[in-house]
């Protein structure tokens, strides 16, 4: 199987397909994603989320902030299952969504755990990580606030944030409070969207 032009093993494909089935079932009961996106969940959510691991592969320790319906956190954790190493700490304060995420990780055999706490409380229970992700959570300035504690603890840490067409304005606003190095990765799934890779984050004010 090909996903975003990269080969995916049969085992990983099976895990992804099982996750999509769970996501579709639970979405009927709780709001995991915008209803308009559910019919094309594979492309709109799975393929889009897979880009994060594909940009930063390997058995790393991740923090996924505001995991919601599991994108990209569960998708990353499924890819890590094939490696047999690495881990994703999924932070989701909504108890119903956290319950879904725990079920999804358990049933797919993905390498991750769920922390049902506010993101601001995450650094106290997750000491360190090597990569951070977030999708459809907040503007870049706020994401930098959330990510800063982990970025300070590991100077090699990198954050990967999905952003839509207004990303340039978010970058300009964030640079008023933060210094950071930036790589812009054009989405191969969503036109006018990017994944912003942030590193060397430092607060200015």
Automatic annotation (TrEMBL):
Principal location: cytoplasm
GO CC term, one of those recorded: cytosol
Enzyme Commission code: 2.1.1.170
Top-level taxonomic group: Bacteria
Reactions catalysed: guanosine(527) in 16S rRNA + S-adenosyl-L-methionine = N(7)-methylguanosine(527) in 16S rRNA + S-adenosyl-L-homocysteine
Keywords noted in UniProt: Cytoplasm, Methyltransferase, rRNA processing, S-adenosyl-L-methionine, Transferase
Recorded coiled-coil stretches: none
The keyword S-adenosyl-L-methionine is assigned to this record: yes
Keyword Calcium: no
Cell compartments where the protein resides: Cytoplasm
Residues holding S-adenosyl-L-methionine: 66, 71, 119-120, 135
Classification via InterPro entries: rRNA_ssu_MeTfrase_G, SAM-dependent_MTases_sf
Top EC category: transferase
GO function terms (MF aspect): rRNA (guanine-N7-)-methyltransferase activity
Described function: Specifically methylates the N7 position of guanine in position 527 of 16S rRNA.
Family: Belongs to the methyltransferase superfamily. RNA methyltransferase RsmG family.
PANTHER family referenced in this protein's UniProt entry, alphabetically: S-ADENOSYL-L-METHIONINE-DEPENDENT METHYLTRANSFERASES SUPERFAMILY PROTEIN
Protein name: Ribosomal RNA small subunit methyltransferase G
Species, as recorded: Rhizobium azibense
């Amino acid at each position: 199987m090909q996903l975003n032009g990269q080969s995916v093993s049969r085992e990983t494909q099976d895990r992804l397909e099982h996750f999509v089935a769970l996501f579709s079932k639970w979405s009927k009961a709780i709001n995991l994603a915008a209803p308009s996106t559910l019919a094309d969940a594979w492309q709109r959510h799975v393929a889009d989320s897979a880009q994060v691991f594909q940009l930063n592969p390997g058995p790393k320790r991740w923090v996924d902030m505001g995991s919601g319906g599991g994108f990209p956190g569960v998708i990353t954790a499924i890819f890590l299952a094939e490696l047999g190493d690495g881990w994703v700490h999924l932070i989701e304060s909504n108890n119903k969504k956290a319950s879904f995420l725990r079920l999804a990780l358990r049933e797919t055999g993905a390498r991750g755990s769920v922390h049902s706490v506010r993101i601001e409380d995450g650094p106290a229970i997750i000491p360190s990580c090597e990569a951070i992700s977030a999708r459809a959570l907040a503007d870049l300035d706020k994401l930098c606030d959330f990510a800063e504690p982990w970025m300070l603890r590991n100077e090699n840490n990198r954050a990967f944030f999905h952003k839509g067409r207004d990303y340039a304005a978010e970058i300009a606003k964030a640079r008023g409070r933060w210094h950071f190095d930036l790589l812009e990765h054009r989405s191969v799934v969503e036109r006018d969207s990017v994944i912003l890779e942030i590193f060397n984050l430092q607060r200015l004010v």
